[in-house]
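Hey, resending since the last one bounced:
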Amino acid sequence: MTKLVLKILILSTAVCASVMFIAKRNGVKKYDPKNYFAAVIDKDSLIRNVPSPRLIFAGASNLAFGLDSRMIENELGVNVINMGLHGNFGLDFILNNVAMNVRKGDVVVLSIEYFLDEMFYKDINYVLNVWPDAEKYVSRDPDFYAQELKYFVSESQESWKRMSNTFFDKALKFKEAKIFISDQVHSYDTLIYSRNAFNENGDVISHLGKQYPFELRGRTPIEISDYSRNIRKLNNFAAEVEKKGGTVYFSYASYPRSEYEKNKKAVKDFETQLNDALEIKIITTPEELVYPDSLFFDTVYHLNEEGRKKRTELVISKLREVHYR
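The structure tokens again:
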């Protein structure tokens, strides 16, 4: 009996050690300094080093894929910085990155996607590992810690699934699926989404002249929500910029015609809330940024080359009306 107990103990120890090894191996994260997210380093360098006065576009990827900053520079005669990168960094990070570096004479154009404020800890965590200095732009509020907890619970569940696949002889199927996904990503997305995708102004140019081979991503319903808390963040941001001698304007994000028609009620409600509470001059209407689906690249917020040109021309026209007369 003693020998049996000893054998069980040894076997249990071996299994536990194996589980810990696999969990550790599966938990290792690789943070690529050439990843699309790592462009935050280069954009931060732009806003810290480009001489004023500057025209700064602040927002997410709708700006990264949606502007020709060189055209704007040529037309308006001002240094242009496109800070747009990724909406899942959250509104706080986007605003902090600009507010802490704005100077007297700068003009900031805010353009936020309709979800306005969604922070994903996984994405911020990636940025912090690639670039620890980004910590100064992170607001560690209750929402941050809630997202952090959600992330670790999700990661634990995924690690357990991976271990289960290994122990129950499903490793081959998992490996085959992983290879398929990897091929899809490396054959297309990594050619578009990388740190090298941007020009010296911060515009994504890797997609120019290319056609996305799949359906537009991000076709999700927009829910009618109370945006008062987020509008206060925008107003506080504007106050901080104006205190430093800058000026802030707001422009809606580009959006496909098909999605606008499906979400018109929510978009109009969003517009009403901004008109009622936003203390920033709004220079466009949602309808002016609604374009045919054919002018979008791979998501409902990313314009292709033709769409990018049309939006840039509109922005130039609007800024001439309100500021660069």
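Residues 11-28, 167-188 have pLDDT under 50 and may be disordered.

Sorry for the duplicate.
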